[in-house]
User: What shape does this take?
Amino acid sequence: MTFDELGLSQKVLAAVEASGYTQPTPIQEQAIPPALQGRDILGIAQTGTGKTAAFVLPMLCRLEQGRARARMPRTLILEPTRELAAQVEASFAKYGANHKLNVALLIGGVAFGDQEAKIMRGADVLIATPGRLLDFYERGKLLLTNIEILVIDEADRMLDMGFIPDIERICKLVPFTRQTLFFSATMPPEITRLTEAFLHNPVRIEVARASSTAATIRQALVATHGHGEKRETLRRLLRGAENFKNAIIFCNRKRDVAILHRSLDKHGFSAGALHGDMDQLARMASLDAFKNGDVTLLVCSDVAARGLDIPDVSHVFNFDVPTHSEDYVHRIGRTGRAGRSGTAVTLVTGEDRKYLDQIETLIGNKIDWEGPGLDELPPAEETPRPARGRERIRSGERSRRPAAAERAEPARARPRRPSESDTRPPTYGDRRDRRTPRPREDDGPPVIGLGDHIPSFLLRPVVLKPAKVGEE
Ligand code: AMP
Assistant: This one.
């Protein structure tokens, strides 16, 4: 099938041709015709399938008629993260090159003023993260009564981030008669409930199961002990990686992203970081530095990395085994894109067996071990128990200079340009991310009671007075 057969307008077809696309992808082929007829769509598709164009192209056709009024956008696209919102805005610039449309972006971490000016001018397309959208709405700066098309993208990621109550609220604020285009990579029960409540007789399109991993990705497991040894294992793998161009490294927790980033930096690797607590400018700077090749490693959390379209990544490292097996599929899907080959290596400790089993069940395959498996791993070296978390960074490791061999071998490190992420400290305390289930820590054995430190007042001898007669 060709794009000409889908019913798109001449202006849109010209932009598609200019983009160099010759054939619609399966989701585009199946979603565009019913979307043009005004039908609701339930698209079960991951990033990388061409789903953005599947909703942007029919929206552009629809927007050729009519115009927007001040404070009353005509279409609304909800995205879970700022990066995805910015990516969709870029798609409108690309596919809407022949249209004169006002596209406004409402995302957290950016000053209100410019965003407000764009909405006041009248936005044909409003691309927003749910929190910032509701902020604007509550301040009376935005009316949703003219929305003709509502797009909810990456719904399962919205669920992970605790956005579903916001989405439900927004769905009730837009007119009942709007068209809804709904996309999710997976369909957990909460998402199914949402679609039942807010979609009207949708056309259901499923293009790839979330459990499928591309055949172009070589997957491997590497057994390791936890603590500092895990970082050492990662450094060894990075230095020995074949056909290496660049790598995304995933951690389960935001705090570990920051720790690992600092550690790689200290060991001479060229690395950036991306996690939900960094401010918008720092996130954009990190992402750009990675895309441009200014840094070769990007340490990420799942939320920050979901859906990012970063073509041509040679390696993915799972520093932590993901606790949600579907995240494994999403993570390794960052490499091996567009038919290229890629490598995905997962570091596994003894505590990860359960999660590894779940992943192998989901993908329907056993993943090969590179080197000894967990059961053959020699016992960890007898070293003093590492200091926990913050304590460790404050004292020992940060001030320790890298060993001579490490200093002499900054394998993949390129000369670093200071990026914004170096100078801007992450801001902690995002209320939404606290709703995300917390994976376990791998910072050492749990500290029971007061741990190693006993306050001195508890060590003072206690003098007990003899009880008086009559007292219990
Ligand atoms: P998405 O799933 O929307 O993130 O798209 C993934 C990538 O596929 C983007 O880099 C798009 O530019 C590209 N793409 C989208 N549609 C097509 C198409 N019909 N032919 C070739 N590439 C496409």
Summary: Residues 21, 23-25, 28, 47-53, 309 surround adenosine monophosphate (CB under 6 Å). Residues 168 and 197 are 9 Å apart (CA to CA). Confidence is low (pLDDT under 50) at residues 383-454.
